[in-house]
C-alpha cells in the first residue's frame, strides 16, 4: 500500500494512494480521486464497509442486487483480483482501467480472453462459446433455432481456431481480436474520459499536492 | 508551469475566483483555456455545492455552439476547469470593431445563438447572464456561448466597452428578472438574445441610460426604438422578442417559425457519443430529411460479437441513472436490411421524426424546443443499427442517446411489432433454448 496523501483517503487507511494508482494506470490523479467518489457510492449502497460486495456491484450495474446471470458473475469475479469475494478500491481502479479508451489494445484483448475462458483452462472451448451464446440469447429475448446457434458457433470457430484443435488459445484469440476490433467494443467505456465531471465532489475533497497533478 | 497533461501559458483573463490561462496539451499540442479557481475562497463563500452542480451541468452540454468543458482537476488549494479554447475573441469586440454587422451575418450568428440557447434549455440549463462578452466567435466565424452553467457565479464586469456605460449595467436583463418576482429562465434568456440581436444589427443598445433607475424604467416599459432602416422581418422579430410581457413574448418555437429567422437556416446538431470523437469538425448539419438511396453497411456478427451485446457486459450502468433497457433495445428480424431501414425510416417520418444516415447507422431525431423536465425530455436521438447473424436473420439494435424514454419505447415497440419475428415462432424457440441452457448449466 502506498502512503495516503488525500484527506478523503485517510478515512479508510486501507485504500491506496491515488498518486500510486495513477502511475500504474491510464488514469490521472484527479480521475482516481473522482473514481473514489463512485467507489464510495457503490461500496456504501448495502453493506457500508468500504468494500464492494457482489450484491452492491450488481445493484450499481443492473439496479438489481441478485441478478443471476453468467456474465454478471464473470465480470465481478474478474474485478475481484484477490479472489476474496469483495472488490477494494485498488482492484476497482485497476479493473476499470482496462475499459479506459486510452488503455492499450493488448490489455483489453487479454481481459476479454479471461472473461470468455469460463473454466479458467487457458483456452476458450467450443462448449464455453456455445453456452455463452445461449446465455446472451436467453437474456436478450433473442430467440434462434438450435441450428442457427450451431451455425454461428461453427462459423466463429472456423475463423478463430487456426490450428483446428477445437479450442482457442491466447495467441489465436489475439490474432482474431486484432482482425475483428468490433469484438472489443464493450471493453471501452467512453464515460471514463469524463469521469472527473461525472463525480465532481472530488474537487472539494482533494488532498493532492500541486506537484502530484 | 504545468498542470497534469497541460502546459500553462499566458493569462487570458481574471475573474472573481481566479485566473483563466491558455494551456497546451503536452501530447497533442491542442490549445485549451483553463479556469483556475481558488478552493479556499469557494469554501469560505459556501458555494461548494453550487460549483459541483455547475460542473455536473456543464458536463451535459455538448453542442458545436457551446463552449465545452473537457475535464476538471483539483489539488488541495485549487480547482482547474479545462475548457475549449475559442481563438476568435468576443462578439463584443467584433461589433465594436465593425460598428454593426450586416443583416446576413447578424442573422447567421443569431441562428447559432438560438441553437445553443435552445439546446441548453432542453437540458434544463438556463444562462441568466447572456451578453456579447459571454458570446465568443471562433476563427471560422461561428458562435460559441461561454459560461453556460457558470452563470450563477459572480462575474467580473467589463468597464471599457461600447456596450457598457456603467459597470455591471443590466442592459441585457429581462424586465421580469429586474422585478424579481420569479421568472421563466427560457423566456428571460430569449429577451437577452433579442438585445444581442438588436446590438448586432444596429451597433447600439435598445435600452441605455447613465442613470440605472431610468435604465430600469426603460427596460420595464420595453419601448425599444427599432430603426426603420432595418428589414421588415428583422424589425418584426425584434419587436416580438423585446416584448416586456413574458407571456406574449416570442418563445423558442415562435422564433424558429419566424420567416426572417428561417432564411438560410441549417440547424446545428448536438454532438452525440459517435460524434464526440470529431469535435473539431465544426457544425454537424442536418437536413429535414435525407433519402436513403443505399442503406448503411451491414456487418455480419460472429459469436463473440453477439455475446458482447449482453447488457451484463455493459458497465455503463455505473455512470447512468437509468437501466440499460431504457437506452438499448434489440429484436430479431427476417426482413432484409434494405427493407428494415426503409421501414424504420417510414415509421419514424410518419411519427414526425427527422431521419439521417450517418456512418453505417440510421439516426432518428426528434427536435424538441421545450425545456427539459425530470423525465429526460429534450431532443430525442436514436440510432438504428442492423447486424447479420446468419443468412436472412438480423438483429436490429435501437439505441437512445438522449430524449424522452417513453417516446423511445413506443417507437421501439412499434418497430419490433412490425419487423420482428412473430411471437409464436419465438416462444417455440425459447422452450428449446431453455432446455439447452439447463443441459449446459448442469454439465458445469
Element-level helix/strand string of chain B: EEEEHHEEHHEEHHHHHHEHEHEEEEHH
What is the ordering of alpha helices and beta strands of chain A? HHHEHHEHHEHHEHHH
CATH architecture of the largest domain in chain A: Orthogonal Bundle
Q: Return residue spans of chain A where pLDDT drops below 50 for at least 5 consecutive residues.
A: 1-13
Strand content of chain A: under 5%
- CATH topology category name of the largest domain in chain B: Transferase(Phosphotransferase), domain 1
Please provide a written account of the structure:
The complex is a heterodimer of chains A (213) and B (444). In chain A, α2 packs across α3 (29-43). Chain A folds into two domains: 17-101 and 190-212, Recoverin, domain 1, CATH 1.10.238; 105-187, EF-hand (Recoverin, domain 1, Orthogonal Bundle). Chain A has helices spanning 7-10, 18-24, 29-43, 54-62, 70-79, 89-97, 105-116, 126-140, 146-160, 170-179, 195-198, 202-205; strands at residues 52-53, 86-87, 124-125, 167-168. Chain A is mainly alpha-helical and 213 residues long. Helices cover 54% and strands 4% of the residues of chain A. Chain B has three domains: 2-84, Phosphorylase Kinase, domain 1 (2-Layer Sandwich), CATH 3.30.200; 91-262, Transferase(Phosphotransferase), domain 1; 286-440, TATA-Binding Protein (2-Layer Sandwich), CATH 3.30.310.80. Chain B has a six-stranded antiparallel sheet with strand order 1-2-3-4-6-5. In chain B, strands 9, 10, 11, 12, 13 and 14 form a six-stranded mixed sheet that branches. Chain B has a two-stranded antiparallel sheet with strand order 7-8. Chain B is globular, with a radius of gyration of 25 Å. In chain B, 41% of the residues are buried. The model of chain B is unreliable at 152-168, 273-293, 372-377 and 423-433 (pLDDT under 50). Classes of the chains: A mainly alpha (213), B alpha+beta (444). Chains A and B meet through α3, α4, α5, α8 and α9 of A and α1, α2, β5, α11 and β10 of B.
Amino acid at each position: 500500500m502506498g502512503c495516503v496523501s488525500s484527506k478523503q483517503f485517510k478515512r479508510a487507511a486501507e485504500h491506496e494512494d491515488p498518486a500510486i494508482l495513477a502511475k500504474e494506470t491510464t488514469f490521472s490523479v484527479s480521475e482516481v480521486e473522482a473514481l473514489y467518489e463512485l467507489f464510495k457510492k457503490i461500496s456504501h449502497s448495502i453493506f457500508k464497509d468500504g468494500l464492494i460486495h457482489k450484491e452492491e456491484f450488481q445493484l450499481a450495474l443492473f439496479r438489481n442486487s441478485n441478478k443471476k446471470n453468467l456474465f454478471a458473475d464473470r465480470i465481478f469475479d474478474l474485478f475481484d483480483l484477490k479472489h476474496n469475494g469483495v472488490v477494494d478500491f485498488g482492484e476497482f481502479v485497476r479493473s476499470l482501467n482496462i475499459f479506459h479508451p486510452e488503455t492499450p489494445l493488448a490489455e483489453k484483448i487479454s481481459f476479454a480472453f479471461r472473461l470468455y475462458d469460463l473454466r479458467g483452462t487457458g483456452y476458450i472451448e467450443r462448449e464455453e462459446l456455445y453456452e455463452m451464446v445461449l446465455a446472451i440469447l436467453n437474456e436478450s429475448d433473442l430467440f434462434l433455432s438450435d441450428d442457427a446457434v450451431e451455425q454461428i458457433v461453427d462459423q466463429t470457430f472456423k475463423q478463430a481456431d487456426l490450428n483446428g484443435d477445437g479450442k482457442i488459445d491466447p495467441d489465436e484469440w489475439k490474432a482474431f481480436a486484432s482482425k475483428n476490433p468490433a469484438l472489443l467494443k464493450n471493453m471501452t467505456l467512453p464515460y471514463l474520459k469524463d469521469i472527473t465531471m461525472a463525480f465532481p465532489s472530488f474537487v472539494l475533497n482533494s488532498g493532492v499536492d500541486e506537484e502530484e497533478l | 508551469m504545468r498542470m497534469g497533461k497541460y502546459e500553462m501559458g499566458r493569462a487570458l483573463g481574471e475573474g472573481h475566483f481566479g485566473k483563466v490561462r491558455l494551456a497546451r496539451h503536452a501530447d497533442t499540442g491542442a490549445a485549451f483555456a483553463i479556469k483556475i479557481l481558488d478552493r479556499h475562497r469557494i469554501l469560505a463563500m459556501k458555494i461548494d455545492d453550487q460549483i459541483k452542480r455547475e460542473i455536473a451541468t456543464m458536463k451535459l452540454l455538448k453542442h458545436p455552439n457551446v463552449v465545452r468543458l473537457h475535464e476538471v482537476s483539483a489539488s488541495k488549494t485549487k480547482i482547474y476547469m479545462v475548457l475549449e479554447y475559442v481563438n476568435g475573441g468576443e462578439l463584443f469586440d467584433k461589433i465594436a470593431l465593425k460598428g454593426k454587422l450586416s443583416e446576413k451575418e447578424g442573422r447567421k450568428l443569431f441562428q447559432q445563438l438560438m441553437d445553443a440557447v435552445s439546446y441548453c434549455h432542453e437540458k434544463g440549463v438556463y444562462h441568466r447572464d447572456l451578453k456579447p462578452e459571454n458570446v465568443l466567435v471562433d476563427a471560422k466565424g461561428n458562435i460559441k456561448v461561454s459560461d453556460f452553467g457558470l452563470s450563477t457565479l459572480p462575474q467580473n464586469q467589463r468597464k471599457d466597452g461600447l456596450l457598457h456605460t456603467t459597470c455591471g449595467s443590466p442592459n441585457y436583463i429581462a424586465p421580469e428578472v429586474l422585478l424579481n418576482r420569479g421568472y421563466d429562465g427560457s423566456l428571460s434568456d430569449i429577451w437577452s438574445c433579442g438585445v444581442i440581436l438588436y446590438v448586432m444589427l444596429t451597433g447600439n443598445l435598445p435600452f441605455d441610460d447613465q442613470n440605472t433607475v431610468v435604465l430600469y424604467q426603460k427596460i420595464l416599459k420595453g419601448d425599444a426604438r427599432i430603426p426603420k432602416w432595418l428589414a421588415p422581418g428583422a424589425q418584426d422579430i425584434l419587436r416580438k422578442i423585446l416584448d416586456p410581457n413574458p407571456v406574449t413574448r416570442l418563445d423558442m418555437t415562435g422564433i424558429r417559425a419566424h420567416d426572417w429567422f428561417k432564411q438560410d437556416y441549417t440547424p446545428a446538431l448536438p454532438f452525440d457519443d459517435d460524434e464526440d470523437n470529431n469535435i473539431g469538425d465544426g457544425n454537424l448539419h442536418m437536413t429535414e430529411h435525407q433519402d436513403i438511396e443505399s442503406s448503411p453497411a451491414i456487418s455480419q456478427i460472429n459469436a463473440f460479437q453477439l455475446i458482447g451485446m449482453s447488457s451484463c457486459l455493459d458497465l455503463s450502468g455505473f455512470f447512468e441513472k437509468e437501466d440499460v433497457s431504457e437506452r438499448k433495445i434489440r429484436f430479431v428480424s427476417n426482413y432484409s436490411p434494405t427493407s428494415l431501414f426503409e421501414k424504420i425510416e417510414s415509421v419514424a417520418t410518419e411519427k414526425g421524426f427527422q431521419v439521417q444516415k450517418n456512418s453505417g447507422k440510421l439516426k432518428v431525431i426528434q427536435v424538441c424546443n421545450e425545456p427539459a423536465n425530470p423525465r429526460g425530455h429534450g431532443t430525442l436521438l436514436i440510432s438504428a443499427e442492423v447486424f447479420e447473424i446468419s443468412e436472412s436473420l438480423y438483429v436490429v439494435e435501437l439505441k437512445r442517446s438522449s430524449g424522452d424514454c417513453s417516446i423511445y419505447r413506443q417507437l421501439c415497440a412499434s418497430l419490433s411489432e412490425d419487423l420482428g419475428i412473430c411471437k409464436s415462432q419465438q416462444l417455440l424457440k425459447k422452450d428449446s433454448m431453455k432446455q439447452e441452457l439447463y443441459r449446459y448449466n448442469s454439465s458445469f
